Amino acid sequence: MLYTVIMAGGKGTRFWPLSRENMPKQLLKIVGERTMIQATVDRVKPVAPPESIIIITGAAHENEIRKQLSEIPAENIIAEPIGRNTAPCVALSAMIVKQRDPDGVIAVLPADHVITKPEILQATVAHILEQLKISPDRLATIGIKPSYPETGYGYIKRGAGISESIYQVDKFLEKPDAKTAKEYADSGEYYWNSGMFFWRADTLLTLMREYMPELINAMERIERHVGRADFPEIFNEAYPSVPSESIDYGLMEKASADGKVIVAEADPGWSDVGSWRSLCDLETPDKDGNFGKGRFIAVDSKGVFAHNDKRLIAAIGVEDIVIVETDDAVLVCHKDKAQDARRVIELIKEKGYDDLL
């Protein structure tokens, strides 16, 4: 059976001032009329009934997620007492799935990505699942064919072809500089790392024991209590001592070097919506490249993105800027610096403006 695990623990700091600690990006209506996590669940419903969808989030957001996703069974919403990055999150999900279904297959999806062509994603997932039946000892991911040189994404270099649109992964690569990103995009052999993963639960745990033994050893007590009445108590007690590490660095990079990872090429209209700049690219601007969500006027301006709920935003004689207004804060930045919104968070903490976090 296919289980869908949705990782919903992100802080969304690059979407400040709209995204806050108590209401991060994945819980907001950033694109469309559904929150990002609701849209993610909507996408997987055709292939995964609610009882097979598992949400892993932070304790601070548990109640809001239960409110937004009332169709998901209560026991399928797991609240981490403290964030420990993605590797413990996916290990936990595999332990839960394996206890329920020893032959269970998992699709791991971020809660805050945009897919504009879900039918292509669903077809790609079906193709991957067929390949995993042939190669159950492999880990799989989706690679997005670059449409332009992007420095904000990690990349995947493909190796030999295995079947139609599925390749061996040669290596995972960190976010490149502009020159390297152009080389990647031009070569045709590199993909954007989508952050979507697929594997059998037992395979994932076997490989994590091989490549990340310290982490798995730290989670042994948790694994023994999965499915038992005392699981919440043991989980909350033991999880904070689990090492914090990303699944990309801790497992995928190492396993790919040993030929254990495959990648499916796809173009499902994907964006990780990682900053205000990437949101600009998803919207339809006017003839001057301006877009406003809310009341907005542009005079002699080009490439302006404005987002507001109440007050009018007027831009005069400016180009390529982002303006975001909320009840208690305003962000103004050049589009090319939109990734740096998280630096504002650091300064807010330094100045003690905790009510704005």
From TrEMBL:
Nucleotidyl transferase domain segment(s): 4-283
GTP-binding recorded as keyword: yes
MannoseP isomerase/GMP-like beta-helix domain boundaries: 294-346
GO molecular function: GTP binding; mannose-1-phosphate guanylyltransferase (GTP) activity
Enzyme Commission number(s) of this protein: 2.7.7.13
Top-tier EC class: transferase
CDD domains from the UniProt entry: GDP-M1P_Guanylyltransferase (cd02509)
Gene Ontology terms describing biological process: GDP-mannose biosynthetic process
Keyword terms, alphabetized: GTP-binding, Nucleotide-binding, Nucleotidyltransferase, Transferase
Name this protein carries in UniProt: Mannose-1-phosphate guanylyltransferase
Species whose genome carries this gene: hydrothermal vent metagenome
The organism's taxonomic lineage, starting at the top: unclassified sequences, metagenomes, ecological metagenomes
